[in-house]
Amino acid sequence: MELILKKNKPLIENYEDLKNRKLSKFTINGNEFSAENTKRFSWKRLSEEAALQYWTEEVTPSLITIKDVYPNASEKKPESEIKNAIGFYESREDIKNETKRRHSTPRINIREIEKFGEVICYGSFAGIDDVMLAQGLLNLYGSPSDEIRIQYSEQQKNRHKRTHPKDNSQKVEPTQEDFQIIGLNTILYGPPGTGKTYAVKTYKDTLLLNQSASEQLYNFEGLSWREAIYLAYKERNFEALSVKEIENTEVVRAYAKTKKSKSIYGTLSTTVIEHATEDSTTSTYRNGRDLFERIKDRWALTDAGKIEAEEVFSNAKEIGQTKDYYYQFVTFHQSYGYEDFIEGIRAETVDGSIQYEVKKGVFRNFCERAEEDLENGTDNNFLFVIDEINRGNISKIFGELITLIEPEKRIGAAEAITVTLPYSGDQFGIPKNVYILGTMNTADRSLSMMDTALRRRFDFVEMMPDSGLIREKVGESGSIEGFNLADILDAMNERIAYLYDREHTLGHAFFMNNSTLADVKRTFENKIIPLLQEYFYDDFRKIRAVLNDKNGIYITEKETSVHKLFDTKLSDGFFSNSENKYALKATASDEEFKKFLSGVLIHKEANES
User: Fold this and answer.
1) In the chain, what are the helix, strand and coil shares in percent, each to the nearest 5?
2) Distances, alpha carbon 573 to alpha carbons 562, 566, 567, 569, in Å
3) In sequence order, what are the residues at sequence separation of 6 or more whose Cβ sits closer than 8 angstroms to the Cβ of residue 552?
4) Which residues contact 199 (CB under 8 A, 6 or more apart)?
5) What's the pLDDT tens digit per position in 76-134?
6) Nearest by Cα to 19 from 217, 218, 152, 118
7) What is the pTM of this model?
């Protein structure tokens, strides 16, 4: 399909025709650009080459307005028609400011182009926007004889077997007000219960907006080539297959990407022949297991092969399951390592013998999907979430990623770099469309204890307790049966900050799902009081002070005579005659709990609230 842009020619207004289309080639005044002669060919190349064509030393960078794209448009035509086609600026910061002003998508991709020894930046969202930018430049600086011809695919791309909800009527899309534009590397940090996990969902919904695609992702851990062939037969409903047909199945293509075999066809052929029946081959490499038999020019599973294949299917429940293609969630812990994250050497048993092979880690696999997306010319974001990022040995896990995660060092950026991985020897870099979002509980580990090199490469977003959310969403203005939970949370947190520090305060999430007083009671007994025990190392005097448990509902005090416990010869000089000891009561009656709750706020606090 072809689209022709000319100076001041009315631009087509229905851009659904360009959605998810692949750019084939384009010409600007006779100069042709295509995938064959242009590196990293994509829609963005169109706006970039148009800028280079019309950027002279007299031209200064400027935004593209509605009048630049639609010169004859009525005054009523809204700027929102081109809100994502940001235009050309002197700095990235200018584009970010314009993005906020226009309320355009946070997924704007910013690129730099250089000419006359200077650099200008431009931002666009998708192929639709790049056509607008090209048309705007042509209208502003082109001549009547200038022409831009664009050829793109007739069929929409369907690389990821996209599936969409049947009914989106209930879907509420996040607005710009709900979302703070984040950098490529961000860590959400704060005390427990401040909504960090909930914020991850918001970031995901916004960054991956309209990217509800899913794909068959496979877990091939421990699987041999023979077992991958079984999966190919399952994919093709157990019909007889040629080796070439086995190679072309989706599951085998996916499996081959995890291996270093230079000849997939040869490996498959050897594997089938080794396990073929005597009547099917004259090869001396037969092992006599008779799993495959030749039927004319194809291979079928024997009864023994089908039995073994069924065992593989029953032990590989995760293989072939549908997962989110653009999103990955992992949790760091003390034993999590570089081998899990990037790559490592692992031993596995193949046909009874132990083999050692370099295995790709979860983050490397994720980055390769994102890089493939970039090379395909699409503009999708990929979100990698690391929960409890501070619980792992970050320097050890990240390795060379500490340098690679910098925005200017990403694949596709101006100063892109790659490194040679230690085990595989492969070149590896992080694509610019990968967002890394971590969560950090400051009650576990202080921010100051994080590796300095890593800290300066991340944006940190603090998330502290917000009692206002309780007033807004819980009970009647934060009150349940007359007890104001927002005021109670604030009072306890002031005391915790005084006795400990602000990093160990209690988050509003503890109360967000409470609707009855019974819920509040369970929250205190099962969550808050045990957490305070951990904070204060069972110092019940401080726990009692935080709760202001003056009535001794949960923390009871009893006087114990040391002379009843120890001989006077042992106790004298070490203990006073009596020591005050505390005991924790695991649960209280409903009436006792009401009495306790009414005492959490002291009289002055209640009056101030």
Assistant:
1) 40, 20, 40
2) 12, 12, 12, 9
3) none
4) 188, 463
5) 455 555 666 667 777 777 777 777 776 666 556 666 777 666 777 777 656 667 788 88
6) 152
7) 0.60
